[in-house]
Amino acid sequence: MRKITLIAVSLIVVGLTGCTNLGVQPWEKGQLARSDMALDSEKLDQALDDHIYFSKEGSSGGRAFAGGGCGCN
Amino acid sequence: MRKLFLFLSLLSTGVFAAPSLDHQVFDSQNQSVSLSEFKGKVVYVDFWASWCGPCRKSFPWMNAMQQKYRDQGLAVVAINLDTDKALAEEFLKQMPAQFSVRFNPEGDVARSFDLLGMPSSFVFNRQGQLVKNHVGFYQDNAADYEQELVSLLKE
Protein backbone atom coordinates (compact mmCIF):
# COMPACT_ATOMS: atom_id res chain seq x y z
CA MET A 1 0.00 0.00 0.00
CA ARG A 2 2.78 2.35 1.04
CA LYS A 3 4.63 1.52 -2.13
CA ILE A 4 1.62 2.32 -4.28
CA THR A 5 1.13 5.70 -2.57
CA LEU A 6 4.79 6.43 -3.05
CA ILE A 7 4.65 5.62 -6.73
CA ALA A 8 1.43 7.57 -7.16
CA VAL A 9 2.85 10.63 -5.42
CA SER A 10 6.02 10.58 -7.48
CA LEU A 11 4.05 10.12 -10.69
CA ILE A 12 1.83 13.09 -9.85
CA VAL A 13 4.77 15.33 -8.99
CA VAL A 14 6.68 14.30 -12.09
CA GLY A 15 3.57 14.86 -14.16
CA LEU A 16 3.01 18.29 -12.68
CA THR A 17 6.57 19.47 -13.01
CA GLY A 18 7.52 17.63 -16.16
CA CYS A 19 6.39 20.35 -18.54
CA THR A 20 7.80 23.36 -16.70
CA ASN A 21 10.99 23.45 -18.72
CA LEU A 22 9.83 23.04 -22.28
CA GLY A 23 10.95 25.18 -25.16
CA VAL A 24 13.64 27.78 -25.60
CA GLN A 25 13.75 30.41 -22.89
CA PRO A 26 14.30 34.09 -23.77
CA TRP A 27 17.86 34.02 -22.46
CA GLU A 28 18.72 30.94 -24.50
CA LYS A 29 18.21 32.55 -27.89
CA GLY A 30 21.83 33.47 -28.46
CA GLN A 31 22.26 31.02 -31.32
CA LEU A 32 18.99 32.10 -32.91
CA ALA A 33 20.08 35.73 -32.74
CA ARG A 34 23.16 35.11 -34.85
CA SER A 35 22.94 36.98 -38.14
CA ASP A 36 23.64 33.82 -40.15
CA MET A 37 20.55 32.27 -38.59
CA ALA A 38 18.29 34.84 -40.23
CA LEU A 39 16.08 33.56 -43.04
CA ASP A 40 17.55 36.14 -45.43
CA SER A 41 21.16 36.01 -44.32
CA GLU A 42 22.47 34.83 -47.72
CA LYS A 43 21.19 37.40 -50.20
CA LEU A 44 22.73 35.79 -53.30
CA ASP A 45 21.56 32.36 -52.31
CA GLN A 46 18.07 33.69 -51.77
CA ALA A 47 18.10 35.50 -55.15
CA LEU A 48 19.02 32.25 -56.92
CA ASP A 49 16.40 30.30 -55.01
CA ASP A 50 13.83 32.92 -55.95
CA HIS A 51 14.84 32.78 -59.60
CA ILE A 52 14.35 29.01 -59.74
CA TYR A 53 11.16 29.11 -57.76
CA PHE A 54 9.58 31.88 -59.80
CA SER A 55 10.63 30.28 -63.09
CA LYS A 56 8.94 27.06 -62.07
CA GLU A 57 5.83 28.78 -60.79
CA GLY A 58 5.59 31.22 -63.66
CA SER A 59 5.22 34.07 -61.24
CA SER A 60 7.25 36.67 -59.53
CA GLY A 61 6.87 37.33 -55.87
CA GLY A 62 4.40 35.07 -54.19
CA ARG A 63 6.70 33.58 -51.66
CA ALA A 64 4.42 34.87 -48.95
CA PHE A 65 0.88 36.15 -49.27
CA ALA A 66 0.20 38.19 -52.36
CA GLY A 67 0.25 36.38 -55.68
CA GLY A 68 -0.51 32.70 -55.63
CA GLY A 69 1.64 31.65 -58.55
CA CYS A 70 -1.13 32.01 -61.13
CA GLY A 71 1.30 33.49 -63.64
CA CYS A 72 -0.71 36.67 -63.96
CA ASN A 73 1.62 38.86 -61.91
CA MET B 1 12.50 7.57 0.95
CA ARG B 2 14.39 10.68 1.93
CA LYS B 3 16.34 10.54 -1.32
CA LEU B 4 13.11 10.40 -3.27
CA PHE B 5 11.76 13.46 -1.52
CA LEU B 6 15.01 15.31 -2.12
CA PHE B 7 14.81 14.42 -5.78
CA LEU B 8 11.20 15.51 -6.04
CA SER B 9 11.85 18.79 -4.27
CA LEU B 10 14.74 19.36 -6.66
CA LEU B 11 12.34 18.90 -9.55
CA SER B 12 9.85 21.35 -8.16
CA THR B 13 12.28 24.14 -7.23
CA GLY B 14 11.74 25.77 -10.59
CA VAL B 15 8.07 26.15 -9.81
CA PHE B 16 8.39 27.94 -6.48
CA ALA B 17 11.43 30.11 -7.07
CA ALA B 18 10.65 33.80 -7.27
CA PRO B 19 12.49 37.05 -7.97
CA SER B 20 14.47 38.01 -4.90
CA LEU B 21 17.94 39.10 -3.91
CA ASP B 22 18.67 35.70 -2.35
CA HIS B 23 20.33 34.27 -5.43
CA GLN B 24 23.86 33.19 -6.15
CA VAL B 25 25.66 34.52 -9.21
CA PHE B 26 29.28 34.72 -10.34
CA ASP B 27 31.37 37.86 -10.21
CA SER B 28 34.03 38.74 -12.78
CA GLN B 29 36.57 36.58 -10.92
CA ASN B 30 34.27 33.57 -11.19
CA GLN B 31 33.56 33.63 -7.47
CA SER B 32 30.07 32.74 -6.35
CA VAL B 33 28.49 35.76 -4.69
CA SER B 34 25.00 36.53 -3.45
CA LEU B 35 22.83 39.34 -4.73
CA SER B 36 22.02 40.11 -1.10
CA GLU B 37 25.28 42.09 -0.88
CA PHE B 38 23.25 44.95 -2.36
CA LYS B 39 20.52 44.80 0.28
CA GLY B 40 19.78 48.16 1.83
CA LYS B 41 20.10 49.93 -1.47
CA VAL B 42 17.61 50.46 -4.23
CA VAL B 43 18.67 47.67 -6.57
CA TYR B 44 18.10 47.71 -10.31
CA VAL B 45 18.72 44.16 -11.51
CA ASP B 46 19.07 43.85 -15.26
CA PHE B 47 19.43 40.64 -17.25
CA TRP B 48 21.37 40.95 -20.49
CA ALA B 49 23.31 39.03 -23.10
CA SER B 50 25.89 40.02 -25.68
CA TRP B 51 23.67 39.01 -28.61
CA CYS B 52 20.72 41.12 -27.46
CA GLY B 53 20.31 44.41 -29.32
CA PRO B 54 18.17 46.38 -26.85
CA CYS B 55 20.59 45.41 -24.07
CA ARG B 56 23.24 47.38 -25.91
CA LYS B 57 20.95 50.41 -25.84
CA SER B 58 20.29 50.07 -22.12
CA PHE B 59 23.95 50.15 -21.11
CA PRO B 60 24.58 53.90 -21.56
CA TRP B 61 21.39 54.59 -19.62
CA MET B 62 22.38 52.28 -16.76
CA ASN B 63 25.81 53.91 -16.67
CA ALA B 64 24.17 57.31 -16.41
CA MET B 65 21.78 56.19 -13.66
CA GLN B 66 24.52 54.61 -11.59
CA GLN B 67 26.63 57.72 -11.83
CA LYS B 68 23.78 60.09 -11.06
CA TYR B 69 22.28 58.24 -8.09
CA ARG B 70 25.20 56.34 -6.57
CA ASP B 71 25.43 58.71 -3.62
CA GLN B 72 21.73 58.34 -2.91
CA GLY B 73 22.08 54.56 -2.71
CA LEU B 74 21.31 53.10 -6.09
CA ALA B 75 22.95 49.86 -7.15
CA VAL B 76 22.69 48.80 -10.77
CA VAL B 77 23.44 45.10 -11.14
CA ALA B 78 23.56 43.67 -14.65
CA ILE B 79 23.48 39.89 -14.80
CA ASN B 80 24.93 38.41 -17.95
CA LEU B 81 23.31 35.28 -19.35
CA ASP B 82 25.77 34.35 -22.10
CA THR B 83 26.76 30.70 -21.98
CA ASP B 84 30.17 31.75 -23.30
CA LYS B 85 31.78 34.31 -21.02
CA ALA B 86 34.21 35.42 -23.74
CA LEU B 87 31.30 36.94 -25.68
CA ALA B 88 30.24 38.91 -22.63
CA GLU B 89 33.77 40.20 -22.12
CA GLU B 90 33.97 41.30 -25.73
CA PHE B 91 30.70 43.18 -25.30
CA LEU B 92 31.98 44.82 -22.13
CA LYS B 93 35.10 45.94 -23.96
CA GLN B 94 32.96 47.80 -26.48
CA MET B 95 30.47 48.94 -23.85
CA PRO B 96 32.31 49.54 -20.60
CA ALA B 97 30.03 49.18 -17.60
CA GLN B 98 30.43 51.49 -14.62
CA PHE B 99 28.06 49.39 -12.55
CA SER B 100 28.21 45.91 -11.07
CA VAL B 101 28.26 43.11 -13.61
CA ARG B 102 27.50 39.56 -12.54
CA PHE B 103 27.35 36.33 -14.48
CA ASN B 104 24.85 33.49 -14.56
CA PRO B 105 25.86 31.27 -17.48
CA GLU B 106 23.63 28.45 -16.27
CA GLY B 107 20.57 30.69 -16.45
CA ASP B 108 19.11 29.28 -13.25
CA VAL B 109 18.68 32.74 -11.73
CA ALA B 110 16.99 33.88 -14.94
CA ARG B 111 14.65 30.91 -14.59
CA SER B 112 13.84 31.88 -11.01
CA PHE B 113 13.08 35.42 -12.11
CA ASP B 114 10.90 33.95 -14.84
CA LEU B 115 12.11 36.25 -17.60
CA LEU B 116 9.66 36.92 -20.39
CA GLY B 117 12.11 38.66 -22.69
CA MET B 118 15.53 40.17 -23.03
CA PRO B 119 16.55 42.46 -21.51
CA SER B 120 14.46 42.26 -18.35
CA SER B 121 14.89 44.48 -15.35
CA PHE B 122 13.69 44.15 -11.76
CA VAL B 123 13.65 46.97 -9.25
CA PHE B 124 13.99 46.20 -5.54
CA ASN B 125 13.44 48.76 -2.80
CA ARG B 126 15.70 49.27 0.20
CA GLN B 127 13.91 46.52 2.09
CA GLY B 128 14.82 44.09 -0.67
CA GLN B 129 11.24 43.72 -1.91
CA LEU B 130 10.48 43.51 -5.59
CA VAL B 131 8.65 46.67 -6.63
CA LYS B 132 8.62 46.74 -10.39
CA ASN B 133 9.77 44.83 -13.40
CA HIS B 134 10.17 45.70 -17.04
CA VAL B 135 10.49 43.54 -20.11
CA GLY B 136 12.66 45.10 -22.76
CA PHE B 137 14.31 48.49 -22.76
CA TYR B 138 12.62 51.36 -24.56
CA GLN B 139 14.41 54.66 -24.92
CA ASP B 140 11.05 56.42 -24.92
CA ASN B 141 10.27 55.11 -21.44
CA ALA B 142 13.66 55.91 -19.96
CA ALA B 143 12.28 58.94 -18.15
CA ASP B 144 9.62 56.74 -16.49
CA TYR B 145 12.21 54.19 -15.44
CA GLU B 146 14.25 56.97 -13.90
CA GLN B 147 11.24 58.44 -12.12
CA GLU B 148 10.55 55.09 -10.45
CA LEU B 149 14.10 54.91 -9.20
CA VAL B 150 13.96 58.47 -7.90
CA SER B 151 10.77 57.87 -5.95
CA LEU B 152 12.20 54.67 -4.44
CA LEU B 153 15.41 56.44 -3.48
CA LYS B 154 13.37 59.04 -1.61
CA GLU B 155 11.57 56.44 0.50
UniProtKB/TrEMBL annotation, chain A:
PROSITE patterns: PROKAR_LIPOPROTEIN (PS51257). Residues 24-73 form the DUF4266 domain. InterPro entries: DUF4266. Keywords: Lipoprotein. The keyword Lipoprotein applies. Pfam families: DUF4266. It comes from the Bacteria. This is Lipoprotein. It comes from Shewanella decolorationis S12.
From TrEMBL, chain B:
Residues 7-154 form the Thioredoxin domain. Keywords: Signal. InterPro entries: Redoxin (IPR013740), Thioredoxin-like_sf (IPR036249), Thioredoxin_domain (IPR013766), Thioredoxin_ResA/DsbE_sf (IPR050553). Gene3D superfamilies: Glutaredoxin. Residues 1-17 form the signal peptide. The keyword Signal applies. Pfam families: Redoxin. This is Redoxin domain-containing protein. It comes from Shewanella decolorationis S12. The lineage of its organism: Bacteria, Pseudomonadati, Pseudomonadota, Gammaproteobacteria, Alteromonadales.
